[in-house]
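2 proteins. here.
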Amino acid sequence: FPTDRETINYLRLSGKDKQHLAVVEEYTKVQQLWYDKNSNQEFDELIEFNLDKVKASVAGPKRPQDKILLEDVPYSFSSIVEKNPNSTREKQQLESGDIVIAAITSCTNTSNPNVMIAAGLVAKKAVDLGLTVKPWVKTSLAPGSKVVSDYLDKSGLTQYLNEIGFNLVGYGCTTCIGNSGPLDGWVSKEINQKKLSVCSVLSGNRNFEGRIHQEIKANYLASPPLVVAFALAGSIHVNIQKDAIGIGKDGQEVFLKDLWPTTKEIESTLQTSLSSDMFVSRYEEIYKGDENWASIKTVSNDTYEWNDVSTYIKHPPFFDDSSIKTMQDIHEARILAMLGDSVTTDHISPAGAIKEDSPAGLYLSERQISKQNFNSYGSRRGNHEIMMRGTFANIRIRNEIIPNTEGGITHCYANKQDMSIYDAAMEYAAQSIPLVVIAGKEYGTGSSRDWAAKGTRLLGVRAVIAESFERIHRSNLIGMGVLPLEFTNGDNRKKLQLEGNEKITILEMNNITPNKLMHCTIKGESLLNLIDLKCRIDTMKELDYYKAGGILQYVLNLIVDKAS
């Protein structure tokens, strides 16, 4: 959308000074980016749609791009588990389809005052009507800015959010990155004992498998006011568009229409509760921090002083091996993992909680770190030892080398044992056996997570062979010296009947060029396939990065050359 007067109004509200506003307006007008209804507008594409046909929707249960109309949400869950129509519920008895986490979260969605005020108004009406959140729902409020708390406080809506359980838990990355904390003990116990498929609803940006919580299989993304409504309903089987959400204090059924605020209610509340002074006061000293921040001891050196005992930040090994030979032929590589379609960067490098019995958990336990202090993969991205162990460790990843299983395990053909993918990679490395990963379509979709490529490289993977790649992850693999290769001629792991025990050979690596067809030999116990793979190094600059062993080595070489 072009810049217009509303853009300037927004910038003014968020505390920008007059000079800033003037620069934005003048610049966009000079660049012909300013909307003027009286001038002839030229657009590359015109899209017309009827506002009467726009319907409320959410996304889920496994990918943010999977839009579902609000009225169809209960049916979307049937792909995971069928509702038992004859089931009865005790007060504290969990069923599949129950919502066990409802979180108003995400720095993105909580930055919209309209939807945050709407969530508060839904909470107010729910309290006034006598509704409460179901006892199995863990609720939380984690906005991305303290300004949100300021205008919710001033509007008087904070007390209503608190009354139904949406208490402030902090500012920053919480539930949307897997930092919700544990579920109530009885909830967790029932999920695991009954093998229930339960849900979360949050106002976050992403809902990939295993990301939100390890005990939750279905995760739906919704607006903040809908998150409140789902928390009141307590089950994804409730069609909140049509069904009663609950029973009010007068014994009458309460529907979404009884809770939903009007545009006028939202706007009038905003006018009396939100001002530019809030932004100015909160952000004018944002970099000063509190006494805890001020008390951190720092050393003013040109280089960082590594702490050998730290489990958060360790000296990375990316420059330790000066003998990286990405252009060497790949001889009889083993398949570390064989994966399906839409493998996300969350599958490859999870950011959430660390399991106690995982390689990363065992690493921390060996260093006397208690389980309650494990924190998350995301918080320990400065420690390559943990991130290596977390690569392909998502609890929902499915490695077809060991069919009908979930989690980061594989069969290691070097010692003929089933083990974690990390342990297998280390066993192969000890025997100098190169590795490849096989995958389906859309490999590396999702967050542009650099550790998905870094971890792959550190496990000793020389190449990833897939039907197609997500753009950014393909680039990141090259940047870490891992070769992305694409099946051609309709080939894939299923057509080639791969089982995971095959050995992969790729020759003429020293003659590699962008998009070159590479000859690949796949040798199995009872098969021999000769196929062509397309090199997905797409540009000469990417080829330069790859030849150097990755972009880090490339930059280091530039610095050394310049110094000499």
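next one coming up
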Amino acid sequence: MNTKKGFIFAVGRRKDAVARVRLYEISKDMPLIAEEKVKKGEIFVNDKRIENYFSGKIAPLIYLEPLRITNNLDKYAITVKVVGGGQRGQLIAVVHGISRALSAIDIKNRQILKKKGLLTRDPRVRQRRNVGMGGKSRRAKQSPKR
């Protein structure tokens, strides 16, 4: 743990999304978000509550999974700054960042998270546009009829 600042820092990535995660153990000098102190068990993404940032019924099952399987649901306060990508990519980047922060705290967490595949960065990214392919990355150029 970063003793000067009082938090663990980790970066999670997926496609073009990058999530910078800070995992705080509860103390008196907690960060202020929207003029409120962050409380135990709360997660904020880009200064909004995670429930408001990632709406839907399936999103909570995904972003709480690393905390649930390591039994750390109400132990830490988490703040995340996420940029780039789409909503799904950002969600998986947040999960990856939280998992990496939890693994930095305890070696036992690392083994649990590794088994579930939450520490592995998904290498699949958008294929770049190729020159001479008629505009798209996989499209073949139209051949002339005669």
